[in-house]
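Our consortium's second objective concerns turning raw sequence data into structural hypotheses that experimental partners can test. To show how far this objective has progressed, the report includes one record in full. It was chosen at random from the queue rather than selected for favorable results. The single chain below, 184 residues long, was entered without modification.
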Amino acid sequence: MKKLNLVLTSAFLSTVLTACGNVSDVNFERYTLTQDVQPESYLSTLNVSLHLAPVLDQGGVVLQISDVSLRPAKNHRYSADLDNELRVIFIDELSKASLNKKFVNYQYKLYVPKFQGTIDGKSIVSVSLQIIDPKNDQVIYTGSHSSESDISADGYGPLVTALKANYLKSVNYLIDEMRKLNLK
């Protein structure tokens, strides 16, 4: 019995030590989307809410494995909540377009159902926007835009760069559509 306990203890310790030895092999990367955002965009009083598809709201960079399977990465994560980063980018782009003053009294609802890479090297982003006049609770604009591109290289860094570029493309398309609105 003592031999069996000794063997089991040795096997257990060997497993623990092997696992501890592999800890340095684990890669905990953090990716930010908002390094180039104007500081005042963080303090904006615009009424902007942004919601993500549930799989995108888990903190990890998402890969689309098949037509029906999405997988958030465990060790490759955003440095802040993705919905907050995308919200701040929207506000920043609105400010750069000088539309934030014209649209200051409106409520913005954004929904992002797609913000992922694919195993065949694509970046896919989709954004929907609704603008509401809170005075009469009337929807004055509803629009969507999707953008897809090839990723420049393998890895999560190039994927996150492509995702941000596609998000900016979609947001700027929606901002161009807002310019066409005949608001007083």
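The partners drew two points from this record. Residues 156-179 form the longest helix (24 residues). Confidence is low (pLDDT under 50) at residues 3-23. Both points have been shared with the crystallography group to help prioritize constructs.
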